[in-house]
Design a protein that fits this description.
The complex is a heterodimer of chains A (about 120) and B (about 150).
Chain A: H1 2-23, H2 28-44, H3 47-55, H4 57-60, H5 64-81, H6 85-89, H7 95-111
Chain B: H1 4-14, H2 23-51, H3 60-77, H4 79-87, H5 89-92, H6 95-108, H7 114-121, H8 127-150
Helix pairs in contact in B: 2-3, 3-6, 6-7
Classes of the chains: A mainly alpha (about 120), B mainly alpha (about 150).
Chain lengths: ~120, ~150
């Protein structure tokens, strides 16, 4: 059952992105940027956690979860260190994603040759 | 150079003869591929939870890292671009699209050298996501923190 909801919710989020691209003629960069802001906004109201509980990877794999993790790390550090914690914790949870994107992106670019 | 009014007039003029994107087919494709990527993500997440003692909360991190590795490799092999042509947003919205943006930008500028080409351009496309994410998280974090203090 968790696979079913991961498929449906993840697919539905992608459909929203597709509609933004087709109807409002947004570029992929605009769509992903809006989705990250949207994810952070949903987390600010505590909605995104419920979605993750419900859909599992259907909510953690789309880029909206990046915004959610940014705010989550910031708030966790803010509980501990106060105002300054927001800056300290902002990349705490997303570190795995960003550092692996840098590492693997660099390695692949070094090893492979551009196609086409 | 055409003035802005002329450009707008031209855009209005060609609007009726521009091909309309096939909305429903595009959405179906995006739904299928996007859902499939999340399905794979769920399988990877279950794998990490079963064999490496990650909880449901913490399993998201290695899952995202694994998907990023897969997407980077597929980009290097030239497969991800083919998926992207078919799936549209279905391959852009998942975190694999973020990895694809990093890797493809770096690959594209490889001929300019490792420092000025690969390293400088790695975040050329994907940087917008990090900038907007960090700014939004900062602003919303401040607002929520102030609310928490007042309550």
């Amino acid at each position: 059952m968790e696979f079913f909801w991961a498929f449906v919710v993840g697919g539905a989020i992608c459909v929203v992105g597709q509609l933004m691209m087709d109807i409002f003629k947004l570029t992929p960069a605009h769509v992903t940027s809006s989705f990250v802001v949207l994810g952070a906004l949903l987390d600010a109201f505590g909605i995104y956690d419920n979605l993750i509980e419900f859909a599992g990877a259907g909510a953690t794999v789309p880029i909206t979860s990046f915004g959610h993790s940014l705010l989550h790390g910031a708030m966790a550090a803010a509980d501990e260190h106060g105002f300054i914690g927001i800056a300290m914790g902002i990349f705490e949870l997303t570190s795995a994603g960003i550092s692996s994107a840098i590492l693997f992106g660099f390695l692949v670019a070094v090893i492979f040759e551009p196609k086409g | 150079m055409a003035t802005k009014e002329e450009q707008q007039a031209y855009a209005e003029k060609i609007k009726p003869i521009q091909p309309k994107p096939p909305y429903i087919i595009n959405c179906l494709k995006a739904f299928l591929i996007g859902g499939l990527i999340c399905l794979i993500g769920q399988a990877i997440q279950n794998f990490y939870m079963a064999f490496f003692n990650f909880s449901e909360e913490t399993a998201g991190n290695p899952t995202v890292a694994t998907l990023i590795l897969i997407a980077a490799l597929l980009t290097g092999l030239g497969v991800y671009d083919k998926i992207g042509q078919f799936a549209g947003a279905g391959s852009i919205v998942p975190v694999t699209g973020f990895s694809n943006a990093c890797t493809s930008a770096a690959l594209e500028h490889k001929s300019e050298g490792l420092v000025l080409g690969v390293a400088t351009n790695l975040f050329k496309l994907a940087g917008a996501v990090i900038v907007f994410g960090a700014v939004a998280a900062y602003v919303f974090g401040m607002i929520r923190y102030i609310f928490q203090q007042m309550m």
